[in-house]
Every structure is written in structure tokens, then in C-alpha cells.
Amino acid sequence: MAESPHLMIVEARFHEDIGEELVRGAAAEITKAGATYEHFQVPGAFELPAALQYAVKSMDFYSGRRRFDGYVALGCLIRGETTHYDTVAAECARGLNDLVLRHTLALGYGVLTVENREQAWARASVTQKNRGGEAARACLDMIELKRQFRLNTR
């Protein structure tokens, strides 16, 4: 029987209250699955890919910590008056997807892209759409798929 998965939750803190709710949903889903996690924070969604890259590359240099089996990226982008939202949303998604494909990572993508705080809360709330929990579940499902193909999950 395989060891229970160990995940990295990385949370963009630009909208702290929404990020905290996304983490709450993800942590509950991970715990319910019998998995473990470590929680890290970055300033915003643009920094999410770098945090995952740091974690992946750190294993090349330091083996004193358990390797992550999967990654859950959480954050919230609320459209503003300029095109900054579009740039950050596209680069965050592109950066994360590039890492997934380059390093064969199991990723749960929980970065909300919304028009306003009301939409953000409807998606983040654990009593409504619970996108944090959905991202964690997607990550756990991808870890299982990797195991079916016997890909290196460590």
C-alpha cells in the first residue's frame, strides 16, 4: 500500500480573507483523504509558480525533508480598472502549467479569476462552491493517476 500523499499548499495572500477560506477548504479535503500538507504563503498569484519551482528544485540540493507528492495553488484575482488582472491571470496559469508539464507534477489549480468580491466569496466559501476543496481533490486525484502509471511521485 502506498504511503499517504504529502501536499504543498501555496496561498497567494493579496486578498488575505479569501485566500484563508480557500486554504480552509483545501486543508479539510486533504485531511479527510488521510493525506498531509505543508502550507506556504506568497504575496500574490504572480508568485505562485516561483514558489512551486523553489519546492521542486530544492529537492535537487537538499533531501532532508519529505518530497511533496502534489501541489495546491490557491489565490484570488479580482478584475480592476486596468489590464493588470489579465496579465497576472495568464502568467500565473501559464507558469503553473509549464511546471506541471516540465516536472510531471500533480497540481490542484485553485486560483479564482472573478469580477468582484461577491463572486470571489461565493467560490471560496466552504459552504458554497468550495474551490479550495475542489483544487485539493483534483490534486489528490492526479496523484492517484500518477501512481497508476507508476510515475515517480517522490
Structure description:
The chain has a four-stranded parallel β-sheet with strand order 2-1-3-4, sandwiched between helices. It starts with 5 loop residues before the first strand and ends in a 6-residue tail after the last helix. With about 150 residues, the protein is of the alpha/beta class. The protein has a single domain (about 5-80, about 90-145), classed as Lumazine/riboflavin synthase (Rossmann fold), CATH 3.40.50. It is built from five helices and four strands.
Top keywords for this entry?
6,7-dimethyl-8-ribityllumazine synthase activity; Rossmann fold; 4-stranded parallel sheet; EC 2.5.1.78; 50% helix; LS; alpha/beta; globular; 154 residues; 6,7-dimethyl-8-ribityllumazine synthase; 20% strand; 5 helices
Report the principal-axis shape.
globular
The structure class reads alpha/beta
If classified by CATH, what would the architecture be? 3-Layer(aba) Sandwich
Q: List the secondary-structure elements in sequence, H or E.
A: EHEHEHEHH
Individual helix count: 5
**What is the CATH homology-level superfamily?**
Lumazine/riboflavin synthase
Largest sheet: 4 strands, parallel
What's the average pLDDT?
A: 93
Q: What strand line-up does the widest sheet have?
A: 2-1-3-4
CATH topology: Rossmann fold
Number of strands: 4
Calculate the terminal CA-CA distance, rounded to whole Å: 15 Å
Helical content stands at 40-55%
Q: Beta-strand percentage?
A: 15-25%
Q: Which blocks of ≥5 consecutive residues have pLDDT under 50? A: none
How many domains, as an integer? 1
How much is the radius of gyration in Å?
15 Å
Classified by CATH, the class is Alpha Beta
